[in-house]
Amino acid sequence: MRWPRSLALRLALAAGLWVAAGLGAAAWFVADIAVHQVEAAFDGRLAALLDAAVAVAATDADGGIVLSRAPAGADFERPFSGAYWQVTAPDGSVKTSRSLWDQVLPAAATGHDGVLLRDASGPRGEMLRVAERDLLLPGASAPAHVAVGLSRMETEAEIARLRRTLLVTFAVLGLGLVGGVVATVVAGLAPLRRVRRALVEVREGRRAAFEIDAPSEIAPLVAELDALVAANRATVERARSHVGNLAHALKTPLAVLRNALDGAAPDLPVARGEAAALERLVHHHLARARTAALASAAAGAVPMEAATQVARALRRLFAERHLAIEVGGDAALRVRLDPQDLTEMLGNLMENACTWARSRITVSVAAAGREVIIAVSDDGPGLPDGDRDAALGRGVRLDEAVPGSGLGLAIVADLAALHGGRLDLGRAADGGLRAVLHLPGQAMTVGA
Amino acid sequence: MRVLVVEDHVALARQVADALRDAGFVADQAADGEEGHFLGDTEPYDAVVLDLGLPVLDGLTVLRRWRAAGRDMPVLILTARDGWTEKVAGLNAGADDYLAKPFVMAELVARVQALVRRAHGRSRPEIALGRLVVDTAAQRVLLDGAGVKLTGLEYRLLAYLALHAGQVVSKTELTEHLYAQDFDRDSNTLEVVVGRLRRKLGDGFIETIRGQGYRLSAG
Questions:
Q1: d(Cα B132, Cα B122) in Å, to the nearest integer?
Q2: What is the pLDDT of residue A328?
Q3: A424 has which bridge partners?
Q4: pLDDT value at position A143?
């Protein structure tokens, strides 16, 4: 069976099934007990009638058995009234109440102790309950047999009425319970509807944030939605400010370029210089735009995987220098950022290391608390202490003789900061540069 | 040295091809991935300049198909997307170097030259053969330290033989590597050029191996 998609319907259905089963069982039990009591009361009355009949039974002058007067408590006189008595003498002669008219009660068994209760068929075929017993009268040689019968018609009607009443009562109770559940569910889900309305308003720009006073179960959801909206807004803001910066940064050199080329004698060295500046700017801003676009999509990446891929590519790129590029560490560690960003950082760091290394670069991946530490070391000349900060400055190239845009380390530092990490530059054991990335790690591992 | 330039931007393709021709290469051009793949698959190029964003068949696929078919000429990829993810994808698909657009033409030429040298197991641009030095970067030939004036075809032939110094190079191979694809090829021209080179350099450098081809040695 497929559950309906509506939560309210699901809960109502589940509650309805449970209530129906529970109330059904309860109704059955209650009816059983009530019917028992009615039956017991009926049998009690019958036994009392039998006692009354026995009390007035006596031996007449002929030794036969008579009832000295009509037993009290029921209409034994009106024919087929539904109340009957019958006395059978030891010799087999039968005396009956007037109500039996010309009929007799079905033959009763004799020779047992105490009162016998049984169901029988009455003079008109009606259901009859019969109570009977043997009776040894003073002076008699053998016991006589006294039987009293009562029609069950009224009792049956009473039981049917009882069952009907119970059924109606429990049905009403059940409906009331299900209705109560539905009302509870609808009321309980109301905050979700409020959240949805608020979401629509946020999307349409009619309100800035949710700021709903939600119940504690939904409050975290609302808080997350608020955070998402805020993050989105921050991304848009960042993009907007980038566009502004970009426009400003590009238009100035463009103006210079244009002026240099206009006029009778174009100033080619200036034009060339501005074109180079423009190229650097475009490169830088595209890199920034990429980082901004990817910052929110933190999918999680595996440093060992990325480093191995980059190492493979660099071995090809620096094939003729026969560099030993070693990647080692915990292959199960993950960092909480986009795989493309990680590859970008590792690519820049490892290419830089390859450019300067004499023969060997090493990449190590290790965990430190909740951080993942990626260290890229080379055995090249390294950087003097004073130059390390400058190397992280934008567009600064510490050696103009080696090709590169001079943005590599700055991009890595920007990216790391954007993801809540950082880049440290230090000295490797054999004098080269040691670049250490601290990145926020993930508790989960690759296999899990 | 024959180079294939696969680039769909007409002006850029022409600029690249012209720059490579100026540097002593013979350059063929292809404007889409399919044509580029076909040429690279059937012609013996010494290097390929391959754009990644190509119509019909993208550059990465072209490269993968070449490598899968055992074509191992050096390939320099050109790409506007200069993220490391793209670089790693290109290099791991079998490229030997990459250059991000925009680039300086001199750098492209230098890199293609370096790739060709690397493919022949040489790390320095100068090839020294006794008294003869062929500088493949500067396109200069020195004999006893003095420059020798050579025509474009003479230089190309000598440079190709120098890269394969000590090996016998057949006339067919020379023709395939010295002329563009649709050039009218005449093997008699080669003999004439070799004759002129011998006159300029002196005997002993270029040997004729009868029925097989030519061999350049230190003399």
A1: 17
A2: 93
A3: A436
A4: 82
Taking the C-alpha atoms of A276, A278, A280 and A284 in order, what is their torsion angle to the nearest 10 degrees?
A: 180
Are the beta carbons of B84 and A310 separated by less than 8 Å?
yes
| Contact in structure between A31 and A166 (CB atoms under 8 Å) | yes
Q: Answer yes or no: are the C-beta atoms of A275 and A395 closer than 8 Å.
A: no
Query: CB–CB of B88 and A310 under 8 A?
Result: yes
- Smallest Cβ–Cβ distance between B85 and the set A283, A316, A343 belongs to A343
d(CA A198, CA A205): 10
**pLDDT at residue A293, as a whole number:** 61
Q: What is the pLDDT of residues A382-396, one digit of tens each?
A: 888 777 777 776 544
Tokens of B7: 């680039």
Q: Do B91 and A348 touch (CB under 8 A)?
A: no
What b-and-e string marks burial along B29-48, b requiring 16 or more CB atoms within 10 Å of the CB?
bbbbbebbbebbeeeebbbb
Closest CA to A318 of A364, A391, A262, A380: A380
Structure tokens at B14: 């022409």
Q: What is the pLDDT of residue A448?
A: 37
- Whole-angstrom Cα distance, residue A108 to residue A118? 10
pLDDT at B76 (0 to 100): 95
d(C-alpha A347, C-alpha A203), whole Å: 39
Bond from prior residue into A71 cis (ω within 30 degrees of 0): no
Predicted TM-score of the model (pTM): 0.54
CA A147 to chain centre: 69
HSE of B5 in the Cβ direction (CA atoms, 13 Å)?
Answer: 25
Q: Give ipTM to 2 decimals.
A: 0.71
Residue of A nearest to B114 (CA): A320
d(Cα A235, Cα B93) in Å, to the nearest integer? 34
Structural tokens at position A85 = 């008595």
Whether the per-residue pLDDT at B72 is higher than 60: the answer is: yes
pLDDT of amino acid A445: 44
Selecting from A279, A309, A319 the residue whose C-beta is nearest the C-beta of B92 gives: A309
**What is the rounded CA–CA span in Å between residue A200 and residue B204?**
88
Q: Which candidate, A27, A55, A216, A46, places its Cα nearest to that of A130? A: A46
Q: Are A423 and A392 in contact (CB under 8 A)?
A: yes
pLDDT confidence band for B187 (50 / 70 / 90): low
Do B96 and A316 lie within an 8 Å CB cutoff?
yes
For residue A387, the surrounding DSSP H or E stretch is: helix A385-392
Provide, as residue numbers in chain B, all residues whose Cβ is less than 8 Å from the Cβ of A313. 87-88, 90-92
3-class DSSP state of A165: helix
For B139-152, how does the pLDDT look when each residue is reduced to its tens digit (9 = 90+)? 889 988 888 899 88
Question: Percent of chain B at pLDDT above 90?
Answer: 41
Average pLDDT for residues A364-382, to the nearest whole number? 91
Name residues 47-106 of chain B within 8 A of A (Cβ).
82-85, 87-88, 90-92, 95-98, 102
Residue of A39, A310, A380 lying closest to B90 (CA atoms): A310
CB within 8 Å: A344 and B83: yes
Higher pLDDT, A69 or A328: A328
CB–CB contact A312 B87 (8 Å): no
Q: Is B203 on the interface with A (CB under 8 A)?
A: no
